[in-house]
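ESCALATION

Customer reports they have been waiting on this structure for their group meeting. Please prioritize. Original submission:
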Amino acid sequence: MALKEERFDGGSTGIAWRRLGEGPPLLLINGYAATKDDWDPTFLAGLAEKSQVICPDNRGVGDSARSVQEITIASMATDLVSLLDDLKVGEVDVAGWSMGGFIAQKLVTWIPDRIKSLTLLSTDSGGTRAHLRSPEAEAALTDKSGTPEEQADRLIDLLFPAGFAAQVKATAGEIVAASRARLDPEVLAEQEAAMAGWYGPSVPPIDQVSELAQKGLPVLIAHGLDDQVIPARNSRVLSGALEDAWLARFPGGGHAFMAQEPDRLSGLMSLFLAR
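Update from on-call: job pushed to the front of the queue and completed.
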């Protein structure tokens, strides 16, 4: 049976989204430079078997408007509050990947009464406790030089282990290159600044999330052990702060491990959401 899907170009919020499946709403927040159309289709289909999956474009990428507002972790979280209001979504499960995990943590602390659960994928706690990527990985992640094809090759090498990266280049390299070509370098620079600010000395949202978890907020943490972008040690930091959280670590998984393990990860998340 074909998967039910809707798309919207942003309307009053300026935030574009796609929605797949039927069931309890699940807000799935993407990371740096990624759009609603970049999710692995098998992973999305697995989630949509049990949930109504809402995939927004963050401000300034994909089909979402740029607006005049500065792009920060806080402003991107504010956008999603407006989106949920616009969609008339009350309670919602929230999942965030990479930078999307930063946004998810901020969102949860702002509207805790509307959040049913939190899933953190390939992300970290922020603040001074987080383990940072290597300078080499940082340079590769933010390098905008070369053709879209060259940028895509660098990105794929960063997101996946070598063997799987070769498969992705062969099957989806042109799609990734086309996606890179559509991105605004100025928006990417603002996202990079937003991520850098996430590691500042101020109290990170994870401390507030920890308080919510102690009061019963269910949390799932999942991470690939071969992640070059956000080191897997961060999953231990998160699970230390969130003692009752589910923790799943995927051997051989890169930063975008949902594309390597779409069935196992979507199955795990569906099991968690149905707890």
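Sent to customer with the following note: The CA atoms of residues 97 and 188 lie 17 Å apart.
Escalation resolved.
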